[in-house]
Amino acid sequence: xxxxxxxxELLCNAGDTKSLMxxxxxxxxxxxxxxSYLPDAKAGLGIMKYDxxxxxxxxxxxxxxKDSNLDNFHNTLLILGSSVGGMQECEEIFYSxxxxxxxxxxxxxxxxxxxxxxxxxxxxxSRAISTACTSSANAMLLAKRLIEVEAYDNVLVVxxxxxxxxxxxxxxxxxxxxxxxxxxxxxxxNGMNVAEAVAGILIQxxxxxxxxxxxxxxxxxxxxxxTNPDPSASGAKNSMRNAIxxxxxxxxxxxxxxxxxxATIANDNVESKAVEELFGNKAYVNSTKAITGHTLGAxxxxxxxxSCEVIKHSIIPPQTGLVELDNENINVPKESIKMxxxxxxxxxxAFGGNNTSLVFGVCK
Amino acid sequence: xxxxxxxxxxxxxxxxxxxxxxxxEKRLVPHMMTRRRLTRNSKVMLFLSDKCDxxxxxxxxxxxxxxxxxxAKIANAVLENEMLSPTSFQNSVYNTAPSYFSLVNKDTDxxxxxxxxxxxxxxxxxxxxLQALVSGEKxxxxxxxxxxxxxxxxxxxxxKYLESGAAVVIEIAKDSEGAQEIQNLPIxxxxxxxxxxxxxxxxxxxxxxxxxxxx
Lengths: 364, 215
What we know:
The structure holds 2 protein chains of 2 kinds. By secondary structure, chain A is α/β, with parallel strands linked by helices. Chain A has 11 helices and 15 strands. Chain A is globular and about 55 Å long. Chain B contains 8 helices and 6 strands, in the order βαααβαααβαββαβ. In chain B, α3 (40-51) crosses α6 and α7 crosses α8 (192-205). The longest helix of chain B is centred in the middle third of the chain and has 16 residues, at 120-135. The N and C termini of chain B lie close together (7 Å). Chain B has one domain (3-67, 93-214): Thiolase/Chalcone synthase (Peroxisomal Thiolase, Chain A, domain 1, 3-Layer(aba) Sandwich), CATH 3.40.47.10. Chain B is globular, with a radius of gyration of 17 Å. At the A-B interface, α3, α4, α5, β5 and α6 of A face α4, α5, α6, β3 and α7 of B.
């Protein structure tokens, strides 16, 4: 059973899918420098233009339905991937009232967002996944498997995370936040940018004129440390190997790696090592977090959309912000490269050593 | 809609009104620094997985509110303009408990974490059944809620047992002969997010070892 990505849309700091890809190819970071979250310090953040995350969810889902081959979502499973769920709204209540009393637990929990969509669009069923920064990548992993075993014909994966004070301050406490626009894989990179996004992807068992195939999914655990990746890179390599094996292709068939690439010292060192040891310098690599920032639980879905767009455009994106490559044994282009792109790997890695890789490709 | 039959290989459950005692942490986590960093959910996870004799393999973990204590610590630190604890932040993600399990047991297999509100344990069972079907392996399906935080009474109106958990190790059955639908065997006072898995544990304790799960 082949599995296809047929429709998608997102909203991030760079705008919608079309605006994001224009920013990716023109190397225009949409990260802004913010002084309101941290006391006496600046932070590069990826902030999207919106009033309320629930309205963004509605708009994205409506557009996907309108563009799809479906009349409604009554026979579609919704899988949400999020790391904070309804926390954004609830922490505002707590900070203003200094009490939990007026917090609705149903608006706090992870499924607050999926329950909202499920009620509004009458999905057949919904569930929510929260594995930190791999949340929506793991949602896609489950979606592929559910379609392959013929449990569902249609699955809508939504990755959604809004910026919260607790996440910005939390990453600051780990000393991994950059006060500038992040520069993945650069020798002088100084950390990540926390960001927000909503991304929806309709995954189906039928091919359309516009389909990209979700060929493979793979996952692993580092079993090494709660926040630091295993320096041997075995977890990252295992998730990529598992996804490539699941796709039924060879390592040599991968043209481009859309890296997790957060621009922290630790992540980029380990991911570079994993890419070097698996692909050498044969596959192109970059991280579009230089444009979007790290959209946390939404990142897997955002970067799945980027991966599909890269295949459709047949253009490898340049690495925004790159001045001097840290690991010279991997192939990170400074300028766009026009070429036939058959297969792409997209990586997502998370706290707890949770690793997920997805393989996208042109349809057979 | 597709249903599969699963075999229940082992099961366990625990619950306490305020705090679960005797979780056997010293034996289960000999390394002191790791033990000191464990969250309440992580300690319950290690205890239940040990009771189920599960040390390695795929895990599907479910929790509606997950690491509420760590999240509350962070929120209160922000409110009081205090420095956030890096340990609290890293321990606040929903996959913290199964990640500590993987660290302690050197388990490098897949971990999925479900958080679907009051149907969390049903969705966790569904995801575990899928993982068992796709892999052909045994899978640990485990759900935990630890909500014993300061001022919890401001929002908790109906949960009597503030720390609770349930776990089953499952595999796909060769056929569905004799398999039963999930019965409604709840334990009053537990959070609804746990009750479907509690029912399956209770079925296993009654000798019903083959259960139908809709994917």
